[in-house]
Specification:
- By secondary structure, the protein is α+β, with helices and mostly antiparallel strands.
- It has one domain: Hypothetical Protein Pfu-838710-001, CATH 2.40.320.
- The protein is about 25% helix and about 50% strand.
- The protein is built from 5 helices and 8 strands.
- It has helices at about 10-25, 40-45, 90-95, 150-165, 175-180, and strands spanning about 1-10, 25-35, 50-60, 60-70, 75-85, 100-120, 120-135, 140-145.
- Strands 1-5-4-3-2-6-7-8 form an 8-stranded antiparallel barrel.
- Strand 3 and strand 4 form a beta hairpin.
- The longest helix has 14 residues, at about 150-165.
- The mean pLDDT is about 90.
């Protein structure tokens, strides 16, 4: 299970934080995501308990992900099953020929870091941080915790990191990517 949230950034905040990521030798990622569903909207998929299908191309590698989304307060919780694929075009053709439609596409250029957040007298939590430009016009800091971490601890770690970067709670964006990109959900 993963718990994640994203914070919208002004371009000036994006540039300020990117300097910090560069100093920490963040990995640069290019992600091209295509989402597929048998239904015309995300809401219909969720109502039918249909998982979302994501086909990702990331730095020359392919991945197929089956996603089930849940909102827990202000945080998104996802159950994901993912596998590597050799040729994403074969998968895209398979889904299109069996009644699925690509209902949205996004491209991310991101800097990625893993941050350890220690807790007094407890195990540390590892937070995956991505500073991202989406479709070359939206700027976000996305923070996620995966594994068997208690929700309250994961959320505390995420909020703590956001605060360290000077990000305010009102910058949290609970919208889905289709909503952000102006696509019917």
């Amino acid at each position: 299970m993963e718990i994640e949230t994203k914070y919208v950034l002004a371009e000036t905040d994006f540039k300020r934080i990117s300097v910090i990521f560069a100093k920490r030798r963040a990995e640069n990622l290019i992600k091209k995501d295509s989402y597929y569903s048998r239904y015309s909207t995300v809401k219909k998929s969720i109502a039918k308990k249909e998982p979302l299908i994501r086909i990702r191309e990331e730095n020359g590698k392919g991945f197929l992900t089956v996603k089930r989304k849940f909102m827990k307060g202000n945080f998104e919780s996802n159950q994901e099953e993912e596998t590597k694929v050799d040729d994403v075009s074969v998968l895209k053709n398979l889904f299109l020929s069996t009644g699925y439609s690509e209902y949205f596409h996004k491209e991310k250029s991101a800097w990625s870091l893993i941050r350890e957040v220690p807790f007094k007298d407890e195990d540390s939590v590892y937070v995956h941080m991505e500073l991202e430009s989406v479709n070359k016009k939206y700027f976000y800091l996305e923070l996620e915790v995966t594994g068997n971490v208690p929700e309250d601890k994961a959320m505390q770690a995420i909020v703590g990191i956001a605060n360290e970067f000077g990000i305010k709670e009102e910058q949290r964006d609970n919208r889905t990517w289709p909503e952000i990109l102006g696509i019917k959900v």
